[in-house]
Amino acid sequence: MSRSPRTIAVVALALVAAVAAIELSMGRVAVCRCGDIKLWHGVVQSAENSQHITDWYTFSHVIHGIGFYALLWLAARRTSIGTRFLIAVMLEGAWEVFENTPFVIDRYRTATIALDYYGDSVVNSVSDIGAMMGGFWLARRLPPWASVSLVVVLEVFVVLMIRDNLTLNILMLLYPLDAIRRWQSGLS
Q1: How far apart are CA 31 and CA 41, in angstroms?
Q2: Which domain holds residue 16?
């Protein structure tokens, strides 16, 4: 079933609003406790990381969008692009809620170098969903080779800048390695 762009936009906004409401009900802060709302916060090892509109991990959420586009193209090719987009928004929203549970926050703090990580602000979570939407849109517009190239460029760029990226983040959450943690900390 095909939906109008307006209907898709309204449903997507409702999904994002639901994520924000759920996170607020979980006790997440709406904005950084510092009182500022910055467009960019580039200091990873700080209490303000994941508290502002964008940060180094925004690039990971763009990659989520590209990945969701590819997976849904493979798994639900006959489903309309609007429905696939809404599924991607639901998946990203579910991740944002799960990522901000005590279980995942504690896992980040014990298994990765994110010692000062206390979860995302709601503004950051909403922005992360927006970055995923942007990645989904890019993947729809770009040829597959360009989407793959963009993922590689973003992953290499971020790892060179902060010694972390989506690949290392997943690895360290699922199977933490001391050698990688030392390298990320600048100890080796």
Answers
A1: 13
A2: 5-31+45-185
